[in-house]
Design goal:
The complex is a heterotetramer of chains A (384), B (429), C (153) and D (244). With 384 residues, chain A is an alpha+beta fold. Chain A contains 16 helices and 8 strands. Chain A folds into 2 domains: 57 residues, no CATH class; 318 residues, Orthogonal Bundle (Cytochrome-c3 Hydrogenase, chain B). Helix content of chain A is 49%, strand content 13%. The two termini of chain A are 19 Å apart. Chain B folds into 3 domains: 52 residues, no CATH class; 241 residues, no CATH class; 94 residues, no CATH class. In chain B, helix 5 packs parallel to helix 11. Chain B is globular, with a radius of gyration of 23 Å. In chain C, the strands form 2 sheets. Chain C has a 3-stranded antiparallel sheet with strand order 2-3-5. Helices cover 24% and strands 16% of the residues of chain C. Chain C is of the alpha+beta class and 153 residues long. The longest helix of chain C is centred in the N-terminal third of the chain and has 12 residues. Chain C starts with a helix and ends in a 9-residue tail after the last helix. Chain C contains 5 helices and 5 strands. Chain C folds into 2 domains: 32 residues, no CATH class; 94 residues, Alpha-Beta Plaits, CATH 3.30.70. With 244 residues, chain D is an alpha/beta fold. Chain D folds into 2 domains: 77 residues, no CATH class; 140 residues, Beta Polymerase, domain 2 (2-Layer Sandwich). In chain D, a hairpin with a 4-residue loop joins strand 5 and strand 6. Chains A and D meet through helix 1, helix 2, helix 4, helix 9 and strand 6 of A and helix 1, helix 2, helix 4, strand 4 and helix 7 of D.
């Protein structure tokens, strides 16, 4: 770390030979202990007054070596670990992992399991977006939406708890389907939840969407156009806000998504406001998907025939899903043993975070905070 | 000697400062110091509680009934905390800055008129004095930011200085328009006043609060002041100098313990000061509402008793909440405490509604009630609005508030000098 | 349309809308906070909390057959099962069973692996202790189940 | 940490020692069904002649791994993958294109390290693969020379298809950076460097990204034990034995 700092500050840093009154540049160390870096992200900002001249992200404070752990656990055992990457969207992580392994062993989950997966994944998307909205608004200074979003997210977590026994790191799905069938009254409860959520989304919007301060703080801030997004590999709502109508749920549908009727909201300018609007619209689309899925959920088994001891044949596959934050991919190399030979996770947050530098150059310090918030990163996933 | 002591008490028109009674001035200073400190403690609890309720939370609940003793617990904590001095800080300035901030915040209090003679003194330049002294407070913030030898405080103090300077302009112009209104008082021969007491007096004589004067001119000036005063006290949505999500804690990032609490004290005292300016200039100071509509001795009495009734209601609210506390053995002391508190509050309220007392203190009570209204607004804004960015804040200050306040000032002058024009425009009063 | 937008802007409609929402939520009945030890949360039936070992309700014998499946299923390898063969019945008898809760991530794989419904993750969620050693649950504690936590303050 | 890490940590006694953890594997796989006769045939079928991928060594590691489960005896195998673009590439680069196959519907192409930059540029410019999904590496210590496989996962928005470009590099060798082609590669290459020690020539700022700068070794290499770093640190800084 020290050597790293020296590189950035220059050699004199340790001796303080340069004058304190050097008015040209100011190096501001934001994080890892900072109220709005969403965990342990550290951003070193080079400032001219409050204007950002450049940034450098220092990450890895939460590195737990998930990929290495994956190489020493069996396929079944590794499933709980993926929940701990993006811990605000654990269901999506688990969905991606289970589907990746299913692709590898060439098994398809039964339809009922697919529907359950879609329902839970969409609920998780809402929950994840709610966490994003609350923290993003808090970064920009609006304290209260945080509490409203967390209150509403609580209802989703209650459904998770009832369904699979855990609220946050759910471990809801297993390779080949689901471990748990729905509980009594699941459909009714989820539908009630949808009806409960709809007006709440309206309230978030009332607090923020037209609020002049919010609009001023977000419009034109952190612009990332479609080409930049593609070049930087940015996916998810950030990409869609830039006007690229691309969503893996439509582009390469998985689970029960092909049977769902929904739209992909897109923005125009690719600024923070558009990303906000895209995510707000996604909340409504998720409700739409959940309603359809609950209405048409088929009966039947929830687990495909999967051997108790998983030994996929030699080979490698890449499978990705549309997690709330972007494309979440798993690249698994199998050597026909019990453990994956290589377990690579393509985390959306990690790659989206890379765009931070491009987005904040020339902006003010306050915008850095807004942009970190709008990228919707989770450091558990960035560092893995 | 005794004569000197009691001499002031027979005086029913002047403040102690004006009457030349230094002893009573000192007593008033002590009362105000204690009162404002008590207000800060109460406000500390009130803000947390209010904010919590805006945010569907409970707020402090564990220290005392409904967290009523929380400010005391916090005060004890702050007093016993280590006073951290950052490495490389400018020791003298670092230690002096909070004292300075506190000093200026409390100095402004001496001209606040809680009643016709309830002020330490009544200066003929009262409002100017308040503005001048309160803007000195920014010096302490700059000192704090500079002396901390840290980037966040530095940025925070720079923001603060720029913000205060630019909002003072709009604020000053809004005040001038209110001061101008005082000169339209019949019998004053067109002479306005800067004295805080006289400004309220002018509103009484004109029979209207200045917020309704030349409607909507007075109201717009008031609105400008109400916005500028939030910026002036560094509160949300203009809390950039201490923007938590950007600058951690802004200019007081490096402070801890008692010195930090000085900043807090000064912040709330500043809120009190600017609210009292707004109350004095536009909301009729200590005057009761509806002086024309509901005139007469009976109504005077009713309005004088109203604050006492309010206090009694607060006491009953305490009873209600005590009855609603969770039934748990661990909660027993709190329930009992709340009952006792309710009884005390009701007793105080009963004391306040007794006609002789009520008439004596009704002016203070109304003044405090109006300030309480502003405090509620402060918390309400904080709960609702996002924070402006620095350049946008400047834009609002210079490009929106300043032109409007200038316009209001000019129009006020014109319509004040030509009442016929105002009448022709369909304006009242 | 333009005029309406302008008027909305002048009369601060956008800000007032937000103020209305927060004002509305002040009502005490909207408060969402649970005063935790005094008001206890409703725990779902499937909740995965502290582990418990079930015993045969009639005989009080353990249901565990010392098959070691839970230990093998555990991703963190925190379950240790020791057994010996009973010379009389020729059956494996569990002699020692420890469960290190401090490393447990409550994934539920052990409970799924258990072939006799013995090991189970119960609804108890109050895990905090004053001592790390107390996180290592032995057979006795697992069979007893959680002792209720009582809060005096 | 549990015992399997210890097993991982023990450095291989000789170069050919499998880096899998035989102890754990043996332990976990004990309740396996008996060996299936079908499996031995599966092995050569999987290892396509052109694939220099001895992921499953015939040596010690394969022994416990043998007893696969009957349902899919042979398993899917990589099929040759042909299209115009591949043919053109083959025409231009000849044997530089080692393999072009499709496995479970996913296409990949293995190319020589000397031409990887050109292939990637061709994919981006000619085939509109404008999005680098991921860049990662796999370590095959049992390969003779080219120990590392670097994998570029590309996606084309226009065609809605993915392709994997793979190349192989030796330990200590370097390969051209893809930052010029896709800026995404910046952090991904840093991560590959951090985890595998693969050097990328022309990378603007190749340094560790997730691990601290003073870290010893490259964790995702198969011969890296988790405990050695921990032990060294604990002994150096605390002067006690590591509790792991």
């Amino acid at each position: 770390m020290v050597a790293n700092d020296r590189d950035f500050y220059g050699d004199e840093w340790g001796e303080r030979t340069s004058t304190v009154l050097d008015a040209d540049e100011l190096v501001l160390n934001m994080g890892p202990q900072h109220p709005s870096t969403h965990g342990v992200l550290r951003v070193i900002l080079k400032l001219d007054g409050e204007k950002v001249l450049g940034t450098e992200c220092v990450i890895g404070y939460l590195h737990r070596g998930v990929e290495k752990i994956g190489e020493s656990r069996t396929y079944t055992m590794f499933a709980p670990y993926v929940d701990r990457m993006d811990y605000v969207a654990a269901v999506s992580n688990g969905l991606g992992y289970c589907q990746a392994v299913e692709t590898l062993i060439n098994v398809e989950a039964p339809p009922r399991a697919q529907y359950i997966r879609v329902i839970l994944a969409e609920l998780q998307r809402i929950a994840s977006h709610q966490v994003w909205l609350g923290t993003h608004a808090l970064d920009i200074g609006a304290m209260t939406p945080l509490f409203y979003t967390f209150r509403d997210r609580e209802e989703i977590l209650k459904v998770f708890e009832k369904y699979c026994g855990a609220r946050l790191t759910t471990h809801a799905f297993r390779i080949g389907g689901c471990q748990y069938d729905t509980y009594d009254g699941f459909e009714k409860e989820v539908k009630k939840l949808c009806d409960f959520m709809e007006p709440k989304f309206g309230e978030y919007e009332e607090l923020l969407t037209t609020n002049r301060i919010w609009v001023e703080r977000t419009k034109g801030v952190g612009i990332l156009n479609g080409d930049d997004c593609k070049a930087l590999g940015v996916t998810g709502p950030v990409l869609r806000a830039a006007g690229v109508k691309w969503d893996l749920r439509k582009a390469q549908p998985y689970a029960a998504y092909p049977k769902m009727d929904f739209e992909i909201p897109v923005g125009e300018n690719g600024d923070t406001y558009d990303r906000y609007m895209v995510r707000i619209k996604e909340l409504h689309q998720s409700l739409r998907i959940i309603r359809q899925a609950v209405d048409s959920i088929p009966a039947g088994p929830i687990m495909a025939k999967v051997p108790k001891v998983l030994k996929p044949p030699v080979g490698e596959i890449y499978h990705s899903i549309e997690a709330p934050k972007g494309e979440l991919g798993y690249f698994i190399v199998s050597d026909a043993s019990l453990q994956p030979y290589r377990m690579r996770i393509r985390p959306p947050s990690f790659i989206n975070l890379q765009a931070l530098d491009k987005m904040v150059r020339g902006m003010l310090v306050a915008d850095v905070v807004a942009v970190i918030g709008t990228l919707d990163i989770v450091l558990g996933e960035v560092d893995r | 000697m005794l004569n000197y002591l009691t001499g002031y008490l027979s005086n029913t028109t002047d403040t102690p400062g004006v009457a030349g009674s230094n002893l009573w001035a000192l007593i008033y200073i002590l009362i105000i110091f204690a009162g404002v400190s008590g207000f800060v403690v109460l406000m500390n609890w009130g803000e947390r509680k209010l904010l919590a309720h805006f945010q569907i939370r409970l707020g402090p609940m564990r220290v005392g009934p409904h967290g009523l003793l929380q400010p005391i617990a916090d005060a004890v904590k702050l007093l016993t905390k280590e006073d951290v001095l950052p490495d490389g800080a400018d020791t003298v300035i670092f230690r002096f800055a909070p004292v300075w901030v506190l000093l200026t915040a409390f100095t402004t209090m001496i001209v606040i008129p809680f009643g016709p003679q309830h002020a330490v003194t009544d200066m003929n330049i009262g409002i100017l004095f308040m503005l001048g002294v309160s803007s000195l407070g920014v010096l302490g913030i700059i000192m704090a930011g500079w002396a901390s030898n840290s980037h966040y405080p530095l940025l925070g103090s720079l923001r603060s200085s720029a913000q205060m300077v630019s909002y003072e302009v709009a604020m000053g112009l809004a005040i001038v328009s209110a001061v101008m209104m005082t000169s339209f008082t019949a019998g004053w021969d067109g002479a306005g006043t800067l004295s805080m007491v006289k400004i309220v007096e002018a509103q009484r004589l004109q029979g209207t609060w200045f917020i309704f004067k030349f409607f909507p001119l007075g109201f717009v000036a008031f609105a400008i002041f109400a916005i500028a005063m939030i910026a002036e006290t560094n509160r949300a949505p203009f809390d950039l100098p201490e923007a938590e999500s950007e600058l951690v804690a802004g200019f007081h990032t490096e402070y801890s313990g008692l010195r930090w609490s000085f900043f807090m004290l000064a912040e709330y005292a500043g809120m009190f000061a600017v609210s009292s300016i707004a109350t004095t200039l536009w909301l009729g100071g200590w005057l009761r509402p509806f002086p024309n509509l509901l005139a007469g001795k009976t109504w005077d009495m009713a309005f004088a008793m109203f604050p006492g009734v309010l206090v009694i209601l607060v006491g009953f609210a305490a009873f209600y909440n005590a009855a609603k506390m969770p039934k748990h053995p661990a909660m027993k002391p709190q329930v009992v405490g709340l009952w006792v508190l309710g009884l005390v509050v009701v007793a105080v309220g009963l004391l306040m509604v007794m006609p002789p007392v009520a008439l004596k203190i009704s002016d203070i009570a109304w003044f405090v009630l109006k300030i309480g209204f502003f405090m509620y607004l402060y918390v309400w804004y904080r709960a609702t609005f996002p924070r402006y960015r620095f350049d946008q804040l400047m834009k609002v200050g210079w490009k929106v508030l300043l032109p409007i306040s200038l316009g209001v000032l000019v129009v006020t002058g014109i319509v004040g000098l030509t009442p016929e024009l105002w009448a022709w425009m369909g304006g009242g009063r | 349309m333009k005029v309406v937008t302008l008027l909305r802007k002048v009369f601060l409609v956008d800000l007032l809308k937000g103020l209305r929402v927060t004002f509305k939520y002040q009502h005490p009945k909207e408060i969402y906070t649970e005063q935790y030890p005094l008001e206890r949360p409703q725990i779902a039936e499937r909740y995965r909390g502290l582990p418990r070992m079930n015993v045969n309700p009639e005989t009080g014998e353990t249901l565990c057959i010392a098959c070691d499946l839970c230990a093998k299923a555990c991703p963190e390898h925190l379950i240790v099962v020791e057994s010996e063969r009973d010379p009389v019945t020729k059956r494996k008898v569990m002699t020692k069973f420890t469960f290190d809760v401090s490393r447990c991530m409550f994934c539920g794989l052990c409970e799924e692996a258990c072939s006799t419904d013995c090991l189970e993750l119960s609804q108890d969620f109050e895990i905090a202790t004053f001592d790390r050693n107390q996180f290592i649950f032995d057979r006795k504690r697992l069979e007893q189940g959680p002792e209720g936590t009582e809060y005096t303050r | 940490m549990p015992e399997d890490n210890k097993a991982n940590a023990t450095p291989p006694s000789d170069g050919t020692q499998p880096t899998k953890t035989p102890a754990t594997e043996a332990k976990v796989s004990s309740p396996n069904p008996p060996q299936s006769p079908a499996n031995p045939e599966a092995k050569p079928a999987v290892a396509v002649p052109t694939t220099p991928k001895p992921a499953v060594p015939a040596g010690a590691a394969a022994a416990p791994a043998k007893p696969a489960v009957p349902p899919k005896p042979a398993g899917p195998t990589p099929q040759p993958w042909e299209n115009e673009f591949i043919q053109r590439l083959k025409k231009v680069y000849g044997s530089g294109i080692r393999e072009a196959s499709t496995y479970l519907g996913q296409n990949y192409i293995t190319v020589d390290v000397s031409i990887v930059s050109e292939i990637l540029s061709a994919y981006r410019d000619d085939e509109a693969f404008d999005y680098l999904v991921d860049l990662t590496a796999v370590h095959y210590p049992k390969r003779e020379k080219l120990e590392f496989e670097v994998i570029y996962i590309l996606y084309s928005f226009a065609k809605n298809t993915r392709v994997r470009v793979k190349t192989q590099v030796a330990n200590g060798a370097s390969l051209p950076s893809a930052v010029e082609i896709w800026p995404t590669a910046n952090w991904l290459e840093r991560e590959a460097f951090d985890m595998f020690g693969i050097r990328f020539d022309g990378h603007p700022d190749l340094k560790r990204i997730l691990l601290p700068d003073g870290w010893q070794g490259y964790p995702l290499r198969k011969d890296y034990g988790i405990l050695q770093q921990d032990n060294a640190w604990v002994q150096g800084n605390l002067g006690i034995e590591s509790g792991q």
